[in-house]
What does this fold into?
Amino acid sequence: MRLTKGEICGAIIILAVVVAVIVYNIREGSLRDQELQLEYPILQKEITIKEKVLFKYNFIENGFRDLAVFSRLQVGNDKFGVVAEEDKGAGSFGINEIVEVGDSLFKAADSDTILIKKHNSIEVYSFLRRDDNY
It folds into this structure.
């Protein structure tokens, strides 16, 4: 069974379209991630926070994988990304698993400790901020 020139050309066109779609999706995702990094810069150690969470970015709804230790938040007028794990060692929670809209965030300047006071209970969680960029 031999392939005709038309079948070969058709297969090449289909392959080219598939490759173009893959490259477009990768490039588009990379551009969205760069825009988000500009809109939500990583929380710096010298920043002080004493306000409520007004907005929490939903990674899954926006086509990204959900990272437990990384969250993009709006707290008061500030937007930032924060990488933090609960201050309990192995088996602890990541900040994105705990923080919700309405929770209060507290962080002193020059400290890596972030406290989250849940809006619907008396629970307080302690997290350690990291400088990683996800």
